[in-house]
Write a structure and sequence with these properties.
With 313 residues, the chain is mostly helical. It is built from 11 helices and 5 strands.
Length: 313
């Protein structure tokens, strides 16, 4: 603690983590190290595959590689510290570190929401207007869509941080999670946080709701369009759409639960936090590679080139 303006100000927060059992923490250390490594390597592999294979130089895979990049960031903003804390007796984080986690959590989460909408728009154009697809989804359009997703995430996250960073934290500093979750941090402020809680809920919920309904409308129209088509590419389109829809469900499922009880603490909240920060970035590359023939073939080609270069060396 330190004194500032005659008030006791919290300079660090204590993260209670996932468990207080030392044996369980050691077990979780190995488990999450494997999951985190797999999530990062899986998404980096997708990015490299899209970059190196000319057959994947299309709008859909450009957006997919950007989704993988966001997933790497999403998995990295808090998970490495959680893994390190499993081996630490004192799980603390500085005030600045805590605010940084809040900022990056919302930057990456909000950017991914908007990017998922962009990916749904891409599929709508590909299926609804195939003859004009490359004209509408030009490289410039794709770059703008990715830029808008990042700009939305940064601006939306900054709006959270502006009022959170000035809240008076003068006593309680224990966070019942493995990272600084905004609703839990707000409840530690030394004032009536009702208005702040409503503002956070409205701010986060509005963007989530808009993105969710845009996705719902987009995929309803797309599925109706696919149903009306009687072409040979229908099954392939459905396979691609099923991967997209699965990712959307995995992403928004936890968000819906969080927004139903945003400021109440439940045991399942930690599971949702782990799912959102570790498992979703791990599952996304698995879903897209297992359901996408082009990506699987490109990965085999990349592997064969790597093996061939090693043998030549």
């Amino acid at each position: 603690m330190s004194l500032l303006n005659n008030k006791s100000v919290v300079t660090e927060f204590i993260l209670l983590g996932l468990s207080s059992s030392r044996e369980l923490q050691l077990f979780l250390f190995f488990i999450f190290s494997v999951f985190y490594g797999a999530a990062v390597l899986g998404n980096i592999l997708i990015i490299l595959t899209v970059i190196t294979d000319s057959r994947l130089h299309s709008p859909m895979y450009f957006l997919l590689s950007n989704l993988s990049f966001i997933d790497v960031c999403q998995a990295t903003f808090a998970t490495p510290k959680m893994i390190a804390d499993f081996l630490s007796e004192h799980k603390t984080i500085t005030f600045k570190g805590c605010m940084s986690q809040i900022f990056f959590l919302h930057v990456f989460g909000d950017s991914e929401m908007v990017l998922l909408v962009a990916m749904a728009y891409d599929r709508y154009i590909a299926i609804g207007k195939p003859l004009h697809y490359m004209t509408i989804m030009s490289r410039r359009t794709c770059t703008v869509l990715v830029g808008v997703s990042w700009a939305t995430g940064i601006l939306h996250s900054a709006s959270h941080l502006v009022f959170t960073i000035d809240l008076p934290f003068c006593g309680p500093n224990k966070v019942d999670n493995f990272f600084c979750d905004l609703p839990l941090i707000i409840k530690l402020a030394c004032l009536d946080t009702y208005v702040s809680e409503i503002l956070v809920l409205t701010n986060s919920g509005l963007l989530s709701l808009i993105c969710f309904f845009l996705l719902l409308i987009s995929y309803t129209i797309i599925l109706a369009t696919v149903h009306c088509q009687a072409s040979g590419g229908t099954s392939r389109a459905l396979s691609t759409l099923s991967a997209h829809i699965t990712v959307v469900v995995l992403f928004f499922g936890p968000l819906i639960f969080i927004h139903i009880w945003p400021f109440e603490s439940f045991t399942i909240d930690k599971f949702i936090s782990v799912f959102f920060t570790v498992f979703t970035p791990l599952l996304n590359p698995m879903i897209y590679t297992l359901r996408n023939k082009d990506v699987k073939e490109a990965m085999k080609k990349l592997r064969n080139q790597h093996v061939g270069s090693k043998e030549a060396f």
